[in-house]
Amino acid sequence: MATIAFIGLGIMGGPMAVNLAKAGHTVVGWNRSPGRAGALIAAGGKEAASIAEAVRDADVVITMVPASPQVEAVAYGPDGILENARRGALLIDNSSITPQTSIDLARAAADKGIRVLDAPVSGGEAGAVEGVLSIMVGGDKADFDVARPVLEAVGKTVVHCGPHGAGQTVKAANQLIVAVNLEAVAEAVVFLEKSGVDLAAALEVLGGGLAGSTVLARKKANFLARDYTPGFKLELHHKDMGNALDAARTAGAPLPVGAAAAQLIASAVARGDGALDHSALLRGVELLSGYGVE
Description:
The protein has 294 residues and is of the alpha/beta class. 53% of the residues lie in helices and 14% in strands.
């Protein structure tokens, strides 16, 4: 069992920290905005008043924050992780950020004697609550082997993908696939409804065939009820698609369909839907199809 500092107790980080505490680890949580540690405390964890307090005695530091600027904010500076964690600590960044940010963080941490893994996750809020996230990891294999028992407390599929930045690259590909899949399901929903087909029956049978996917299984209820309570916000997927397009451009890999999906997500955010679940891509298809969308 490890002493773990968990930085970022939001939609994803909160339940992940709870699962680590339930697994028997000593978990000390910190969140930028107060009042997010109740579930962790109920599960046996503790709340720290600062990053420095959280990481001081930690064997493992986990960060789960929205994007590259937030990772840099909690990692660097006199009050950040690198200045206050002990030498030999292992920093696992579960955030979804640019591969280059992960590479730069690993280099800076090495100067402090701190090991780093980029380990973004997929599975949304439900996967975080259930402890069945898919975790794609970049960094040294030896550090991955040390981290595996910790990661397996929050994830079901935990895979070492290569050197620093590789985890983030795989996560970008994941978000590309999810975005295109969500848009395809949204378009199918409107097509089915306009054709007079029983939507619930259609989605059930589609889910049992080659068109079936984790996206369809997990988001079917959202589409049927037009329930866009965020499990993963459109504004975060917008950020992730920017990461994907940037990394693909650097690699020389064209993403014609991915770029179209990114523009549709950007349009949804521009309309004010950024705080909704990413299944709210359906609202854009409805607008294009002449639906009245409130």
